[in-house]
Design brief:
25% helix; 10 strands; 5-stranded antiparallel sheet; minor pseudopilin epsh fold; alpha+beta; single chain; 5-stranded mixed sheet; elongated; 1 helix
């Protein structure tokens, strides 16, 4: 009796049904992950702008003490603030500059540094003062004239421990806003307005 020679066992490929089931499951997992991924992207944009804003304020405060000069931090829409600088609310850039010592003196204001805000994270909104001024001691001050159009360093309207408050937000579901605070003593910190500042929530915001 003739017998067929046995074939050596080899790796078996995927069947069409197995491939379809795998692709279907992968699609379901992607659909489930999309909302959380979209929220993560929105929150990352808010964090990026808040970090950049906090960094700009710290630059102004540090440079004021280093130079023993009043320094102004402003929001602006000018991509070249070293040559043309106008302060605006919710600006896409930040810039720092020294304040002229006295009206009529030979001293001139000097541009220090600038950076990008919502230019790197589109549609992020910044609500807060257009300008914050620091004294030679690094404290917040309110000079009569900063020498920058629209860059008035006015004291807060209500009595508060914070000289300036910036709220950074982005429209969309699950978008978590952040806040950057500047204390009267010049301290700059970021906090989460969804949490009340306490021993258990040191990252929370004061009332």
């Amino acid at each position: 009796m003739l017998t067929c020679p046995s074939r050596p066992a080899g790796p078996r490929g995927f069947s069409l049904i197995e491939l379809m089931v795998t692709v279907t499951l992968l699609g379901v997992l992607v659909l489930l992950a999309m909302p959380s991924m979209a929220a993560w992207i929105r929150n990352n944009k808010v964090r990026t702008v808040a970090d950049a804003l906090e960094n700009g304020l710290r630059v102004a405060q540090v440079e004021a003490t280093r130079r023993s000069r009043q320094v102004v931090f402003v929001l602006t829409n000018s991509p070249t603030p070293a040559s043309s600088l106008t302060a605006v609310a919710n600006g896409g850039y930040w810039a720092t500059k020294t304040i002229k010592l006295a009206t009529g003196s030979s001293d001139t204001a000097e541009f220090i540094e600038s950076g990008t805000l919502n230019g790197t994270a589109a549609n992020v909104q910044i609500k807060g003062p257009t300008a914050v001024c620091f004294s030679a001691l690094g404290r917040v001050t309110f000079p009569a004239n900063t020498g920058i159009t629209g860059g008035s360093c006015a004291p807060p309207a209500a009595a508060t421990a914070d000289a300036a408050r910036y709220d950074i937000s982005l429209d969309g579901p699950d978008a978590r806003p952040l806040r950057v605070l500047v204390g009267l003593g010049g301290q700059v910190r970021m906090c989460d307005p969804a949490k009340a500042l306490s021993s258990t929530h040191p990252d929370g915001c004061p009332p």
